[in-house]
């Protein structure tokens, strides 16, 4: 799917991602350096934090316990905060939009 990533400074990226890829993988493979994803997708660092566009929130499985605990350490958690390594892209997700926070930790 084609997804939209908007950095905190307003720079917008449109990325071609693969079904089965996590949103974090799509963002980091595209070289967007404001997401460091330090743990490589193990739900153990919270440096893949992103704000998911409200319209897409129920398209992914809900926040699980480990993700919830990690989100508690991010600087500015919001109701639409997710760890993007836990968001796996599926068919029909063209247009998925997320915003990156000012800082990951
Ligand atoms: Fe570390 Fe997502 S990449 S929690």
Q: In words, what does this structure look like?
A:
Its cofactor is [2Fe-2S] cluster. This is (2Fe-2S)-binding protein. Belongs to the adrenodoxin/putidaredoxin family. The protein is of the alpha+beta class. Helices cover 13% and strands 19% of the residues. The chain is built from 2 helices and 5 strands, in the order ββαβαββ. Strands 2-1-5-3-4 form a 5-stranded mixed β-sheet. Strand 1 and strand 2 form a beta hairpin. The structure holds FE2/S2 (inorganic) cluster. FE2/S2 (inorganic) cluster (FES) binds next to loops.
Give the number of DSSP strands: 5
Order of helices and strands: EEHEHEE
Give me the CATH fold name: Ubiquitin-like (UB roll)
Segments where pLDDT lies below 50 for 5+ residues? none
CATH class: Alpha Beta
Structural class of the helix and strand makeup? alpha+beta
Instruction: Return the CATH architecture.
Output: Roll
Helix coverage percent:
10-25%
Strand content: 15-25%
End-to-end Cα distance, whole Å, is 28 Å
Total domain units: 1
- Largest sheet geometry: 5 strands, mixed
The CATH superfamily name is Beta-grasp domain
Question: What would the principal axes of the Cα set say about the shape?
Answer: globular
Radius of gyration computed on alpha carbons: 12 Å
- The helix tally amounts to 2
For the biggest β-sheet, the strand order reads: 2-1-5-3-4
Q: Could you tell me the mean pLDDT?
A: 97
């Amino acid at each position: 799917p084609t997804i939209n990533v908007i950095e905190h400074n307003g720079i917008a990226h449109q990325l071609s991602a693969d079904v089965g890829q996590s949103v974090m993988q799509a963002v980091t493979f595209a070289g967007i350096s404001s997401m460091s994803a330090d743990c490589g997708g193990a739900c153990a660092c919270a440096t893949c934090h992103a704000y998911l566009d409200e319209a897409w929130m129920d398209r992914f499985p809900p926040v699980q316990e480990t993700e919830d605990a990690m989100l508690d350490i991010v600087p500015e958690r919001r109701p639409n905060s997710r760890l993007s390594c836990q968001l796996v892209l599926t068919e029909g997700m063209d247009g998925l939009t997320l915003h990156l926070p000012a800082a990951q930790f």
